[in-house]
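Researcher: Here's my situation. A collaborator sent me these components and asked whether they could plausibly form a single complex. I don't have experimental data yet, so a predicted model of the whole assembly would be a useful starting point for our discussion.
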Amino acid sequence: DTEVTQTPKHLVMGMTNKKSLKCEQHMGHRAMYWYKQKAKKPPELMFVYSYEKLSINESVPSRFSPECPNSSLLNLHLHALQPEDSALYLCASSHPGTGNGYTFGSGTRLTVV
Amino acid sequence: QQPVQSPQAVILREGEDAVINCSSSKALYSVHWYRQKHGEAPVFLMILLKGGEQKGHEKISASFNEKKQQSSLYLTASQLSYSGTYFCGLTGGTSYGKLTFGQGTILTVHP
């Protein structure tokens, strides 16, 4: 299995809703990432997990809450989002260290209404 | 700090060559290259570690000049399937796990 699977593919939520994005990989990668991508822009790093521990938080607002239950799963819990949070949310994984390429999932397209 | 890519867009005919450049004002440890087609995930092409190496992947290759803090992606004899947005991503030696992408270069290949 050489894929990163993200669910759901599309999500529409109200500003008072609570929802979660899920990401799963079975490649034995011990580093996992959340990126946010706006239209016609590059992916922007949000969080990095290494060996199931949060190692980087790029000053992301607390309405985004990441969770890594085990080495194969990564969640992003969403609460009280704003319309400007609408974007494509990408999950990626890699072997830890700066010498390894990332495998990206196809993303969750989030719309906040 | 975000790397700078040039050009912003390239239009080619099948069989033509292109070069995409990526530069940084900070010291580099590694350079990643990805291609993203519209509505799809970015796909990893190759990684270059500091040491000035050049790598090849079929008709796509890249170089990394550590002293100039630059990398270039070379696409030769382009195919329609090469169309997409190309991103370079940089990591610094002290920024473990932090991959920062350039703004992207849109490559369009016409028949």
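Model: Some features of this prediction you could bring to your collaborator: Residues 36 and 42 of chain B are 4 Å apart (CA to CA). The mean pLDDT of chain B is 88.
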